[in-house]
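Collaborator request, handled under Task 6.
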Amino acid sequence: MRDLRELEAFVSVVRTGSLAASTLDLGLPKSTLSRRIKNLEDALGQPLLLRKSRKIVPNEAGRVFYRYSHDVLALLARAGEALDELKEDVSGELVLKCHESLVRGWFSRLVETFLADHHGLQVAIHTQRSVPDSMESGVCLWLGPVGETVLRQETLGSLTQGVFGSPGYFGEHGMPTTPGELAEHPWVDVVGESGSDLQLYSSRQASYPVAIPARRLTVDQFCVQGDVIAGGRGLGLMPHWLVELRMRSHPGSFQCCLPDWQGPQLPVTLLYPHGHLPRRVRAFIAHIREAVPVEWAAAGQECQASA
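C-alpha cells returned to the collaborator:
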C-alpha cells in the first residue's frame, strides 16, 4: 500500500501542473513535495511525470496511475464524511467563501456563533471577488448577479441601493435634487457594477437612465468605495444595508441623496454543490438561513411584487 501523502502529492502536481503551485495547495516545502514524488516513482519502479514547457504533465504511466490515485483519495474522503455522519457532533473542515462586501462584520459574526456551537469544527474563510467556478464541498455567499454556474443557487434575499455621499461633500458641492443632476458630480464606482449607464427607479415605479459622469475613482471592493465616498471624493451607488452597518461604527459618515430613487437591487445568493452534502455543510446552510436579516427578505419581496 502506497503512502497516502505520496498519492496526495502526485495527484496535486498532476492537477496543478507545477511544483510551486502544489506547494501552496498542500502547504509543503518544495523539497518535501519532490521527495514524496520521487519515493512514489521509486516504489513503482518507473517515472510518472514529464516536464514540458515550464509545465509538469503525466506520462502514459502517470495518466493511468493518476486515475486510480484520484479515485482512491476521493473514496477515502467519502468514507471519512460517511463516518462524520455517524457522529452527533458536526466536525471536520468547512470551507466558506464569501463576497468581499459581506465577509467583514455580519458574516464573520455568523461564523463565530456557528463555531461556538460546534467545537470539533475547523473553518477556512476565503474572500471572493468573483463567483467560484466550482466547489467540491462548502458554501459560498454571493452579492449581485451570479450568472451561469454549475453550483446550486438559493436566493436568500436582496439589497436595495441608493445614491450616497458624505455630509462634508454635500456641504461643499451641494446636493443633487433630481437624477439628471448626478452628471454634475464626480462618481465613485465599483469595477463592473454600473457599466456606462445607471438605471434609477422611483417609488412611483418610474425609471430614469442616468449617464454616468467621468468616474473620479473606480475601485474593486465595496469597502474601499465606502472609504472613498466617506472621504468626500464624490457620490456613488451603495447598498442601504451595508451603509447602515458602517454607520453604526462611524455615525455621520454618509448621507443619502435622492431618497425617492434607488438603483438596481442586488440579490444575495447561497451557492453550494449539487448532490449529497456533508453534515457540516448542511448544518451551516441551516444556520445561515436562520440568520438572514429581515431587510434582505423585505427587499426580495418588494422586488418580486414590482416584477
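The cover message to the collaborator said: "The chain has a mean pLDDT of 86. The radius of gyration is 25 Å. Please let us know whether this matches your experimental observations."
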